[in-house]
Design a protein that fits this description.
The protein is α/β, with parallel strands linked by helices. It has two domains: 102 residues, Rossmann fold, CATH 3.40.50; 147 residues, Rossmann fold. Helix content is 29%, strand content 19%. The strands form two sheets. A six-stranded parallel sheet has the order 7-6-5-8-9-10, with helices on both faces. It has a four-stranded parallel sheet with strand order 3-2-1-4, with helices on one face. α1 packs parallel to α2. The longest helix is centred in the C-terminal third of the chain and has 16 residues. It starts with a strand and ends in a 13-residue tail after the last helix. The relative contact order is 0.14.
Length: 259
């Protein structure tokens, strides 16, 4: 039993706030006191995490953005800088969540509920843009989708896309519910795309020059990553993904392009 432990949360995203709950419980069993440090710049996600856990958060890390790896801590970078930060010397054990320790998909109870949301029998969900505008590019807005389309996003995000039903600014659990019923998720590089993959919905995540390309969180959940794809490349990936899904499969990792 350790006296004091620290959980290092590297840039937590929406999906992580759900999955971290059980992991944090296991960490608490090994320590008399447990704290968390987080380098996320997204205060909404941080507030959401606080609703899932009573572990005190010290928002302290300021790692260079180029070494950050989306939702998972860059362990090598962490080790290299650990000795220069007096903060870490105060703790007897340091926990670092990873895709392996957190596992996937998300537990169903995290997003199931009594939602009065009428949905088509078959449809695709998209999040064509995020509030981080450097990730948003036109190719995703020009895609011709072969099934009814539902576009999701937060207030202020550009979700208007041709022939799409708009479901903007719904609570995250309702968005998760909609995604869980979809045949496929096609989105920009975002926490919602990551959450879709973690839920178990086949997911295509489009990276337009994003530094987070090296993070495998969607691929680790059976999804596909596309780096700087054209509209045609996205459409071809959708067609191949639907072939796999219609044949009874769910793993579309092999469709990844750009490595």
């Amino acid at each position: 039993m350790y006296k004091a432990g620290l959980v290092v949360l590297g840039g937590i995203l929406i999906g992580d706030t759900f999955r971290l709950t059980d992991y944090i419980k296991k960490c608490k069993e090994e320590c008399d006191e447990l704290y968390a440090v987080c380098d996320t710049y997204n205060t909404e996600v941080l507030d959401m995490f606080k609703n899932h856990s009573d572990v005190p958060i010290i928002n302290y890390i300021t790692r260079p953005r180029y070494s950050q790896c989306a939702s998972w801590v860059d362990f090598v970078n962490f080790e290299a800088h650990k000795e220069t930060r007096g903060l870490y010397n105060k703790y007897d054990i340091i926990f670092i969540p990873s895709a392996t320790t957190l596992g996937c998909p998300l537990p169903a109870f995290m997003f199931n509920g009594d939602f009065d949301i009428a949905l088509p029998p078959e449809f695709i969900v998209t999040q064509p843009a995020t509030c981080h505008t450097w990730k948003n590019r036109e190719p995703l807005f020009s895609v011709s989708f072969p099934l009814p389309l539902i576009s999701v996003g937060k207030s202020g995000e550009r979700v208007q896309i041709s022939n799409a039903r708009i479901e903007q600014n719904r609570p995250i659990k309702e968005i998760a519910y909609i995604i869980s019923k979809a045949k496929l998720m096609v989105g920009v590089d975002s926490g919602i795309s990551q959450m879709a993959a973690q839920i178990g919905t086949p997911t295509i995540k489009c990276h337009f020059g994003s530094w987070e390309w090296k993070c495998r969180n969607v691929r680790d959940c059976g999804g596909a990553d596309l780096l700087n794809p054209s509209t045609q490349a996205i459409e071809e990936c959708i067609a191949k993904a639907l072939e796999i899904i219609n044949s009874g499969g769910k793993d579309i990792t092999a469709l990844t392009q750009g490595e």
